[in-house]
Specification:
With 355 residues, the chain is α+β, with helices and mostly antiparallel strands. It is built from 8 helices and 7 strands; from the N terminus they run βββααββββαααααα. It folds into 2 domains: 226 residues, 2-Layer Sandwich (Beta Polymerase, domain 2), CATH 3.30.460; 59 residues, Magnesium transport protein CorA, transmembrane region (Methane Monooxygenase Hydroxylase, Chain G, domain 1), CATH 1.20.58. The N and C termini lie far apart (76 Å).
């Protein structure tokens, strides 16, 4: 059974624990990958159905089951039955609009976090939900779509036996996945930082109308990124406290390190928001200065022509008793006077540094 994707409002009234896929409509086929490893051995395979999965007899073997595509409700139900997952856990897995959180069900920990990827062609940020079920000797991960570039280094480390990952348990694997996702946040921030620097240069050199649209787009993206990352610090704080027996003491220093990274990321996001607010102020200030400069020129021109208009208005009155009308040199004399007045006013304005 495939979920076609829907909205939260469509789920209103359904009993708690009902599986209803909330998110974008997915057409791709769900992919199930199983990785089993210990220090000397490693096995990896793709299966079409969880009916093919047989738990390893050796309890020291770590099992990582990754499911790409949570829209297939039938697969989610089978996972829940296989690992005895709570119905509310399954409900949260197929609801891809969850905030990062952690829930302790005793036999397993349920962790939700957001994986971000930057699309260079559209300058957009794709947000994908990743759910982890960490138990004794196993980890089940759920992803919305089939995007493997962020987590693929973890698979390569397991395949090649690099680092300590194959010497550790499922809790270290969960930490590794969280660390990879958090580290990729820095890549997102670098992209946003480059765009902000470009905006800073444009707003000083050539403040055009499109800058307003770019600023608002960046502000919306920062808000979405902040909403996706902010609750994660509490998740890591809970994991690092040592309340769960599923996370060994040796993992706590690593979790505290990821927690520190999360704090740095949040502080960087706040700094970016302040910078964007400053860029918007600079833009509005530049536009205001441009308007003031135009108004200044128009005011000076109007001021210069005021006495000239006054003189022209006087001699535009056709009274016979005006002696200047009979002067032979009256016309050139009036033009000379008007020119002298205009030049005098320009000199006065320049001395006052109004020009």
């Amino acid at each position: 059974m495939d979920g076609t994707g829907g909205k939260i409002s469509e789920k209103v009234g359904l009993p708690p624990g009902t599986l209803f896929h909330i998110g974008g409509k997915k057409d791709e086929k769900t992919r199930i990958t199983i990785i089993e490893y210990d220090e000397p051995e490693f096995r990896e395979r793709d299966i079409s159905s969880l009916d093919e999965y047989v738990p390893p007899e050796d309890k020291s073997v770590v099992t990582w089951i990754n499911i790409d595509g949570v829209h297939n409700l039938g697969v989610i139900e089978k996972v829940g039955a296989l690992f005895n997952l709570h119905p509310l856990t399954l409900e949260d897995i197929v609801n891809t609009e969850q905030f990062p959180k952690i829930e302790d069900y005793g036999d397993y920990l349920f962790i939700v976090l957001k994986m971000l990827s930057y699309e260079d062609k559209t300058d957009s940020i794709d947000i994908e939900q990743v759910s982890l079920c960490l138990g004794s000797g196993f980890l089940v991960s759920f992803q919305e779509g089939i995007k493997d570039k962020i987590l693929s280094p973890i698979r390569e480390r397991i395949r090649n036996g690099k680092g300590r990952i194959r010497k550790m348990g499922a809790d270290y694997l969960a930490y590794s996945l969280i660390d990879a996702i958090v580290d990729h946040y820095f890549t997102i921030l670098e992209k946003l930082g480059e765009r902000i620097e470009t905006l800073e240069d444009e707003v000083v050199e050539n403040p055009e109308q499109k800058i307003i649209n770019d600023i608002h787009q960046l502000k919306r993206q920062l808000i979405n990124v902040r909403r996706s990352i902010w609750p994660l610090r509490e998740v890591l704080n809970i994991m690092g406290r040592g309340d769960s027996a599923l996370i060994t003491d040796s993992i706590h220093p690593y979790l505290r390190d990821v927690y520190d990274h999360t704090i740095r990321i949040i502080e960087t996001i706040e700094a970016f928001r302040d910078i964007l607010a400053g860029i918007l102020d600079i833009y509005l200030s530049n536009i205001s200065n441009r308007i003031n400069a135009v108004m200044k020129v128009l005011t000076i021109i109007a001021t210069i022509f005021m006495p000239l208009t006054f003189i022209a208005g006087i001699y535009g009155m056709n009274f016979k008793s005006m002696p200047e009308l009979e002067w032979r040199l009256g016309y050139p004399l009036i033009l000379l006077v008007m020119t002298a007045i205009g030049i005098s006013m320009l000199i006065y304005f320049r001395r006052k540094k109004w020009l």
